[in-house]
Amino acid sequence: MAFEKLFEEGKIGKLAIKNRVVMPAMGVGLAEPDGHTNEHIIRYYEERAKGGVGLIITEVTRVEPMYGTACPCQLGAYKLSHITGLERLADRVHRYGSKIFLQLHHPGRENHSIQIEGRQIVAPSEVMCKVCQEMPRALSTEEVEDLVKAFIRGAVIAKTAGIDGVELHGAHGYLLNEFMSPYTNKREDKYGGSFDKRLTIMEEIIAGIRQQCGPDYPISVRISADEFVEGGLKLEDTIEIAKRLEKCGINVINVSSGIYESSTTIVEPASFAQGWKKHLATAIRKEVSIPVIAVNNIKEPSVAEALLEEGVCDFIGIARGNLADPAWAKKAECGKEAEINRCIGCLNCFGAIGANGHIKCTVNPRCGREVEFGTVNKNGEGRTVAVIGAGPAGMEAALTLKDRGFKPVIFEKENILGGQLNLADKPVLKDKLGAYKNGLIARVENSGIEVKLGTKADKENVKAINPVGVFLTTGGNPIVPKIPGVEGSNVITAEQFLSGAKKVGEGSVVVIGGGNTGMEVAETLCYEGREVTVVEMMDQIGRGLYPSVLVDYITRVTQKGEKILTGQKVLSIDEKGVTVENTKDQSQSRIDADNVILALGVSSEYSLKDAMKELGVPVLLAGDASHPGRIMEATMDAVNLAYGFLE
Fold it and tell me: 480-600 adopts what CATH topology?
């Protein structure tokens, strides 16, 4: 076995866990509005159990609905009727030898009144979250005592349902974390003030669970080892907290970091390295005798194995990795790690939840839709389907068609699979995108799908394979606006730059377009020491990006001297720079630059559409060939169409 430590049995208290892979809690928004389970959330977790995860920790589960609801369709454990559904969930996870904990949660001040029917949010003290920007009401002593009972009741419900254990969410700036932290707890009653009093709520909850659920029922506590805010908990504080919690009788501690105001340290954007915060878990593990679970932005099994060998933790938290590929663990264990569908760190999963929808994944269109895509109509009967273009849409379409029993044949004009991913992985800090591309290519190559590289599709060569349908996934062409000077020798497109088809001349650079591609091109040039200015017509760059991804980008590039100008329309280009117009007051100004790069997006490439229609078979367009968008839209397009094709 390639990863011996990762796949050796572990123990939490008296509970045996078949391996060291833990899927930590992530909000998914798949339950019923009143907190009951349904087939959607059961299938979601079942897929990860089937994929080899040793321990699953559910999404944040509300213990009371009045102030404790964090999203519209969140699991609940606050009334007896929740037991039946949780029992079904536990049974389905247990089929595959996996264990499951219920994470008990209250959002506290990190919430919005709209989630709780307009009521004012609550917290230990009247300290507003700078992200949520709503002033909370301080809980009375009696209300806190009732919340202690609510957490205990949630644990009793979990145990009654056959759930293997519970986790108290004491991290990420939520209510229990707020009580433990001097940054948010300014109380003067028994639940605040000194270090000891700030831990009172945790001690009472743990004692109550022990009394109600017995001495052997597993209890985990998730903590933020460093809140990364001035006046908040630091590692030396949380080491003492961990030691105190162990004395209270918990069985495992789950180490994370950050609060909403330092959110990039909770769910890291793509720029963060794997294992960047391993020092936190390492320090805590040295001071406790109970096992430590730790998240460390892990994408690769080899990195997980190395952390276990190094003694950083006892169990590895693989969160977004299990969104991107529910078979992450099984592929690693079976020596198929090359085929793992890698997380790219885009954080669109959190964007989907933040928009009050259900969980989605850019690179896994089936995530959150396990019921919809669970039944595959295998009626292909070996019939041939032409797939033109081998980008993410084309490869996902071909893989889905293959699964349905069709014989997809991919036509790709270049000599390599990947399409636009072969450009998208070229900027700095895009190693995760490159790993995703390589995994997708490996899946295609190992599937037996016929691929015609270096072959430009036309009516004749497509007709020659006698297809029953054609999928056009030909991507898009760079947009080149009709403005004076755009044909100048100092002007190139982002595609030409990334592909190496044209070089950027010496001197300063203006990048026109502040979308994802323009941002990445500008950053790459910044890392080369260039003087770079990004010009964007909209009021902000990076529209559609998850906020912490954008904040992370701006922080990095401004430190390197990149200038960002928004609300500026380019009127003309010349050999000395560009002339722009302010979109608000129409004033004009000059930006001096030696070079100009156009990064204005793409227009759909569907020149083959009419020719393919002459074949008399269905022609379907997916990805940028249908409408320009992100990888998320391209892969969802492709899988949706491939599932519905000739059903």
Answer: FAD/NAD(P)-binding domain (3.50.50)
Give yes or no for a contact between 343 and 363, defined as CB atoms under 8 angstroms apart.
yes
Share of the chain above pLDDT 70, in %: 100
Fold of 10-354: TIM Barrel (3.20.20)
CB neighbours of residue 130 within 10 Å: 10
Q: List all residues 6 or more positions away from 494 whose beta carbon is below 8 Å from its beta carbon.
A: 478, 511, 513, 517, 518, 521, 597, 598, 599
Q: Which pLDDT score, from 0 to 100, does residue 340 have? A: 97
- Full-model pTM: 0.95
Dihedrals phi, psi of 253, to nearest 5 degrees: -120, 135
Structure-token pair, residue 601 = 């997006």
φ, ψ (nearest 5 deg) of residue 562:
-65, 140
Residue 2 binned pLDDT confidence (cut-offs 50, 70, 90): confident
Q: Rounded to whole angstroms, how far apart are CA atoms 527 and 21?
A: 36
H helix runs in 375-493, sequence order: 392-403, 421-424, 431-447, 459-463
Rounded CA gap, 468 and 473, in Å? 16
- Tell me if residue 174 is catalytic: yes
In angstroms, what CA-CA distances link 10 with 55, 214, 218, 308, 630?
Answer: 10, 21, 14, 12, 40
Q: What tens digit of pLDDT does each residue of 499-513 get?
A: 999 999 999 999 999
Residue 488 has pLDDT above 70, yes or no: yes
Q: Cβ distance 163 to 220 under 8 Å? A: no
User: Given a cut of 70, is residue 1 above it in pLDDT?
Assistant: no
252 Cβ contact list (under 8 Å, min separation 6): 12, 13, 218, 219, 220, 221, 290, 291, 292, 293, 315
Tokens at residue 41, please?
């959330």
The confidence score (pLDDT) of residue 605 equals 87
| Residue 21: closest CA among 353, 475, 333, 463 | 333
Pick the catalytic residue: 78, 174, 191, 553?
Answer: 174
pLDDT score for 466: 98
Three-class SS state of 198: helix
Measured distance CA(245)–CA(221) in Å, rounded? 8
Work out the pLDDT band at 481, boundaries 50, 70, 90: very high
Euclidean distance between CA atoms 261 and 507, whole angstroms: 38
Which residues share a beta bridge with 10? 17
The DSSP H or E segment spanning 283 is helix 278-285
CA angle 159, 165, 167 (to 5 degrees): 120
Structure confidence by residue, pLDDT tens digits, 263-307: 999 999 999 999 999 999 999 999 999 999 999 999 999 999 999
Residue with tokens 């280009």: 573
Beta strands 10-12 and 122-123, pairing class: unpaired
Domain boundaries, the chain: 10-354, 384-477+604-644, 480-600
- How much is the pLDDT for 544? 87
CATH number of 384-477+604-644: 3.40.50.720
| Sign of the C-alpha dihedral computed for residues 308, 314, 315 and 316 taken in this order | negative
